[in-house]
Amino acid sequence: MSFDLIVKGGTLPDGSVADIGVRGETIAAIEPSIVAEAGRIIEAAGDLVSPPFVDPHFHMDATLSYGIPRINRSGLLLEGIALWGELKKVMTYEEVRDRALAYCDGAVSMGLLAIRSHVDTCDDRLLGVDALLEVKKSVAPYIDLQLVAFPQDGLYRDPTARENTIRALDKGVDVVGGIPHFERTMADGTRSVTELCEIAAERGLMVDLHCDESDDPHSRHIEQLAYEAKRLGLQGRANGSHLTSMHSMDNYYVSKLLPLIAEAGVSAVPNPLINIMLQGRHDTFPKRRGLTRVKEM
User: Fold this and answer.
1) CA–CA separation, 208 vs 289, rounded Å?
2) Disulfide: which of 118, 136, 222, 248 matches 150 by Cβ 3.0-4.6 Å?
3) CATH of residue 252
């Protein structure tokens, strides 16, 4: 018996130490000790050997841009969005592409091989979209990069966001994105959820909305997302990102909401490292952490 590759002495996710034999693209054996010929042997020396890591929520068009055009002094989300609004007017295709490729090199070195990245569609040039589509093609041999058409400034709040989002999808972006809580009114936010889900259903795509990233307990667009996912048959293809308002919601309402989300097959991405820093900025004391209800889900 021979293998193309044997990884010796790797620590598996369950804590056990084993040798791993690979033939072609298939793991053919996992045993305490493999004694066989191999085209290549890697001595893991107790290092972790696991399936690749996945980042389900990223903004690769803005990666490695800290301090450009200047540092976010307040640390607030709204200042960050404003700074990004300045940067995207002057950034070049090459800058976006090269920063994204540099990030992907770092991701691979840490075992991150699947990434879902939102890309801003509120730039009439769709420069970020085009740059990340090139990056997606370049890294395809080693990273599964999925792109989300994301109208950062609001599907209706920005005058050309809807048209640009459709253009991005026509170019080959994979997922329909949105940000209902950033629209001017709750009604517009609700309407955007309905339209974005209908676009996803018509095109046979997934939908991933920045949803209720707020401490306002009345921001309840996740309820509409669950409704539309069930109505349009998007079960298993719809995701709500952030969902931080759920931290502040009345427990009785949440007891109704969670079964609706489960029934609709809507997934959630909580983004804890971001939201425990961003939320609670209007609080005095105690300051809420703002993380969505991970345990209850």
Assistant:
1) 23
2) 118
3) 3.20.20.140
Q: pTM for the whole thing?
A: 0.92
297 found inside a domain: no
190-196 average pLDDT score: 99
Regarding whether 94 and 75 lie in a shared domain, the answer is yes
Catalytic residue among 183, 213, 223, 228: 213
Residue 242: inside a domain, yes or no?
A: yes
State which amino acid sits at residue 285.
F
Q: Are residues 98 and 231 in the same domain?
A: yes
d(CA 96, CA 62): 7
Among 240, 122, 258, which Cα is nearest to 175's? 240
Considering just the CA atoms, what is the radius of gyration of the chain in Å? Answer: 22
Q: What is the pLDDT of residue 233?
A: 98
pLDDT at 76: 86
Active site residue 296: no
* Percentage of the residues of the chain whose pLDDT score is greater than 90: 92
pLDDT digits 0-9 by tens, 61-72: 999 999 999 999
pLDDT of residue 77: 85
Domain encompassing residue 198: 53-278
Instruction: Measure the CA–CA gap between 220 and 227, rounded to whole angstroms.
Output: 12
Contact 272, 297 (CB under 8 A): no
Give the model's pLDDT for residue 192. Answer: 99
Six token digits for residue 59:
């903004």
80 and 201 belong to one structural domain: yes
